[in-house]
Amino acid sequence: MTEVDSKKEMLMKKLLEKHQEAKIIRKIVLTVFTIFAVLFTGIIGGGYLYIKSALKPVNPDNTKPINVSIPIGSSVSTIARILEKNEIIKDDKVFKYYVKFKNESGFQAGDYQLNQTMTLDEIIESLKSGKVMQEAVFKVTIPEGNQLSQIAAIIAKHSPYTKQEVMNRLSDKEFINKMKQLYPETITDEVFHKNIKYPLEGYLYPATYSFYEEKPSLDDILEPMIKKTDEVLKEYQQQLEENNMTAHQFLTMASLIEEEATEKVDREKIASVFYNRLDKNMPLQTDPTVLYALGEHKDRVLYEDLEVDSPYNTYKVKGLPPGPIANAGKMSMEAALNPANTDYFYFLAKPNGEVVFTKTLEEHNKAKQKYLTNQ
């Protein structure tokens, strides 16, 4: 083979190699393009199906009324989030853009009764017309500072259930675990502590609750009260984390403040006394815990009462009691997180409701002699 023939052969070989390489590249490009085309089609198709689904009612078969409150001044975004949170719509963003696309406005604040069968147009019309919820069949008002047995009696008075039925359900481990699953940040394993008297003591928020059925299930009566506590605690979540305080500890401290407070009292100062005592490893020595341990309601705690053998007796046991001794309102909750900066270690309530704060036991005893003698 001549040198020219050899060069021609090498050139042909290289051309063939390049041709093969080009074929492989074309195959790779075609494959990649096909994959991207399939993915793109899938994304577009998936997005279309998702939006199509989000425009439909959440559940066409569920006519159970859901109470929804729209605060004054709510934007469309806020309304959309509230509706999604209450499971009236599937996606807040889809609802927001749907409202924008239809150029809807004029939504009115108020308390609405909606359900999962409603279309987006029906929801929009209801919010625009201000058509509020129907009249309640019955209402239950839970005051601040009430213990579980008192709350059970109130529920029994207004509903078809007896006090014992309410107490039994509130102590039922199946029900408590059900609430624990629904509200895991609020209902924790701390409620199952061996020394707890009632696991859900302090977890039924003081408020007025409206019911729209003649005989709702007992769970449907109790769950909104726990849900409300969960909603309120979410407002304080950051502060609780900063204070390294669990929801259970928080509700316990707030309940002590609630039970000691009077109309004229500075709750922040009461909170400061409790925290000052905890810091010094002193017993809290708060009478309401003794009454809770006794299971009685008395105007005055006697010296013999202070000897009651109970983990709730803060005259004998240091630290917080095992759990709340009542439900607490917002004022007591705020005080539990924002105690006053004082050096008080004692306080007592005068007959007129005013509270005297003192720094030493000697000062405290003098105040007792002055204000409580012959009472």
From TrEMBL:
Alphabetically ordered keywords of this record: Cell membrane, Cell wall biogenesis/degradation, Lyase, Membrane, Transmembrane, Transmembrane helix
Catalyses which reaction(s): a peptidoglycan chain = a peptidoglycan chain with N-acetyl-1,6-anhydromuramyl-[peptide] at the reducing end + a peptidoglycan chain with N-acetylglucosamine at the non-reducing end
Transmembrane segments: 28-51
Localization of this protein: Cell membrane
Its EC number(s): 4.2.2.29
One Pfam family hit: YceG
Membrane topology: Single-pass membrane protein
Major localization class: membrane
Feature type site, description Important for catalytic activity: E260
Family statement: Belongs to the transglycosylase MltG family.
Protein name: Endolytic murein transglycosylase
Organism: Aeribacillus alveayuensis
